[in-house]
Amino acid sequence: MEKLAQHLKELVMGRPRGKRRSGDWALKALSLCLGVFLWYFVVGEDQVDINVFVPIEILNLPEDLVIANQYKKELEVSIRGPRSLIQELRNKNITRPVDLSNAKPGPVVIRNDENSIPFPRGISVLRVQPTNITLVLDRLIRKDFPIHPVTEGSPKPGYTLKRITVSPDHLTVSGPKSILDSEMALKTDIINLDGLQRSTTLQVQLNLSPQFLDLIGETVVTARLEVEETLLTKTVRGIPVNVRGAREPVTTVPKTVAVIASIPENLVRNTPELAMLFRASVNVADLQIPGSARVNVIGVNVPDHAPIRIISTKPASVRVLAEKKTRQAGRRKPSRQTDNSQQ
Description:
The longest helix is centred in the C-terminal third of the chain and has 20 residues, at 323-342. Helix content is 22%, strand content 45%. The chain is built from seven helices and 20 strands. The chain is rod-shaped, with a radius of gyration of 49 Å. A hairpin with a 7-residue loop joins β10 and β11 (200-207). Strands 2, 5, 7, 8, 9, 10, 11 and 12 form an eight-stranded mixed sheet that branches. A five-stranded mixed sheet has the order 18-16-13-15-19. A four-stranded mixed sheet has the order 4-1-3-6. By secondary structure, the chain is of the alpha+beta class. α1 packs across α2.
């Protein structure tokens, strides 16, 4: 290459007079051919046409504004250039910059041409698609949205959905004012209650519109479903009164009591005699007999069922009598009947 450069120099400047020889013209011709070949190799490299995708880069968007519409995020550009420059583009982050520093709310039309994209020198832009992009700018706001659970179906017969709680119970969303103002609350996907007979916790997705889905993406909340047995209010009679703490045989007047109670519906349906579900008792350990004692009534705990709730007892107190006095009174009663018959 050094010799070739020297020959080119001599070709242009000429040899010193003392060094000229008869073969100089042949050498000059050879040097000229080599120079043309070298120029073609360096400058006349193969030209390549390809299509590339150039991302759009948003710059200087004001903090109180947001792009409210969907727009094409990249341009399809047809370019031409030397193969080596085309290959080097792979290592360069070429973008189409869009400066929005002076933008205001409303539509903004971005025009794309061969001068919009900063390609290196030597690259020619043949075509840009799309030639126009419209951005809709809107005010950026924050808004709290309550989350409402959506259900369908019913729990198993005899059970009631007491409440549903959602965690979190609200979301704070940032986005375009026009989109956020279109909704007052967010809703979950449908929660099926069919056959439910116990409390449970579920992970449930929010049912979002496409616009909200673009803002916050797929979102999951925790739903707590509290289920309880349906209670029926019943009056139950004929519950025997048991005596506790007696030092001598005693009896109560009356011998049975009635209660008003809340009983699980399934127990009412499956129990032939409701009095079997209750226990009534009086404690007479410290009672002076005869006397009155308050009746304590409790519901029997049945596995897999809600507790029975006592509302009231009738009578609330019973008379406790010594059993032997009751027998004597029973023996005198027939004699009085005899006397009356004799009269």
